[in-house]
């Protein structure tokens, strides 16, 4: 955050999802803000939303000055966002000034072209409808008309001064050539306007990642750094995770079953209703099995459950469920279970999140399981995935959805016992459960441990468990363990990766050191 000077300057909320949290309340009122970005970064949408949400949420009339797009195209492009611009025009809440036609007509005789006539048109429109918000999109189209930097700066200052004198809050968009080069295209825009916002659309790991950064708010404070955002057809700009973080009034004390009596006992009687549970373990330890029984327990209790799979197709899930005596078709036919199966590569994490959010709000499940979260690591950076988990967690907690997240080590050989994403999100979850292969007297067995349960006691033992055609069966505490196996590869026939032999107490340390903050009280 910047300094505290200017905290008394009034703000005008933009209404853009998550932006006002970064701006500490909105844009400084009565001032002009420059919004710059490369092609596809969301400049026009930002300008449109600022105006439209002002009308929609606060009844603020607005004037939209367009230098490039036809007004009819703009009306069509934002139809999915639910902005009835044509209706607002009829009621005097919205006015278009189409400056693109003037530019085309005046281009051959540009001569001593200035922005005086445009400023007069905007002033007349503002006074006619009593506008409080104005947007100019994109000012770069007209700035190319000026030969010298001095003239360009003078004319830009002229129109900005005219707008400021009217007391309106203005958003001016402009292009830039590079994502991390100079702020603006001509190098003067950021000095004339009071505030500067940079939108970026960076290609990383063969995928686009949009971010927003407030570079300056003259005389007042804001949050610093780049913030991830996405664009949804119904939501518009959504800044993650700030758009979804909100305090909760209460924490649930009601328990729900995991679908496994042994695991319920290890967790102190089941999961709290609003818990987010993280279950980690290598391939074959029973993550999908646990997810399916968790979903079946929801249906048995008469609750809705959303099962999201990133690893297996719907057909594979049905076959696996049948092998453990579960009829996935019948569970879905009850109307209480919805299965969504898709591979991570079909969309960005932000797009996956928006779709999941829509399903949560439409289906209104009491439980949700994601199998596996770590599959998303194939398409995203750890920071972006962490933002995804924080945003999703905020939505799930708000709706009090009991959630099971599964995670597996990535790659065929992993240097760490715990998956990368599990290390990142463990502090965000309420319950952490670890599954591992262990070697006992020359045999490979499965072990399970509960590392934390926030607000509740839990079993501190590493317990042996077995999987058969009826499901998972958790047994007695394991004694005298010699080593932990980070991963096995039954599908390839490869040998397990084995750590050095350990005695019982040291073995316990190896499990617990992955989550050093875990303890009896979580």
In short:
The protein is an alpha/beta fold and 522 residues long. The protein is 31% helix and 27% strand. 45% of the residues are buried.
Structure write-up:
- There is one protein chain.
- This protein has 522 residues and is an alpha/beta fold.
- It contains 17 helices and 24 strands.
- The strands form 4 sheets. Strands 14, 15, 16, 17, 18, 19, 20, 21, 22, 23 and 24 form an 11-stranded mixed beta sheet that branches. A 9-stranded mixed beta sheet has the order 5-4-6-7-3-8-9-10-11, sandwiched between helices.
- A hairpin with a 4-residue loop joins strand 23 and strand 24.
- It starts with 10 loop residues before the first strand and ends in a 10-residue tail after the last helix.
* CA gyration radius, whole angstroms: 28 Å
Helices, by number, come to 17
Number of extended strands:
24
Please identify the structural class as seen in this structure.
alpha/beta
Helix content: 25-40%
Strand content: 25-35%
Low-confidence stretches: 1-6, 106-112, 411-419, 483-522
Shape verdict: elongated
Average pLDDT taken over every residue:
82
The separation of the N and C termini measures: 32 Å
Major pleated sheet: 11 strands, mixed
Itemize the secondary structure elements and their pairings:
Layout: E1 11-12, H1 19-22, E2 27-28, E3 32-37, H2 43-58, E4 62-66, H3 71-77, H4 85-90, E5 94-98, H5 99-106, H6 116-129, E6 133-137, H7 140-143, H8 149-165, E7 169-175, H9 189-192, E8 195-204, E9 207-217, E10 227-232, E11 236-239, E12 255-256, H10 261-266, E13 271-272, E14 276-280, H11 287-300, E15 305-309, H12 314-323, H13 328-333, E16 337-341, H14 349-363, E17 367-371, H15 382-398, E18 402-407, H16 420-425, E19 431-440, E20 443-453, E21 463-468, E22 471-477, E23 483-489, E24 494-498, H17 504-512
Parallel strand pairs: 3-7, 3-8, 4-5, 4-6, 6-7, 14-18, 14-19, 15-16, 15-17, 17-18
Antiparallel strand pairs: 1-2, 8-9, 9-10, 10-11, 12-13, 19-20, 19-23, 20-21, 21-22, 23-24
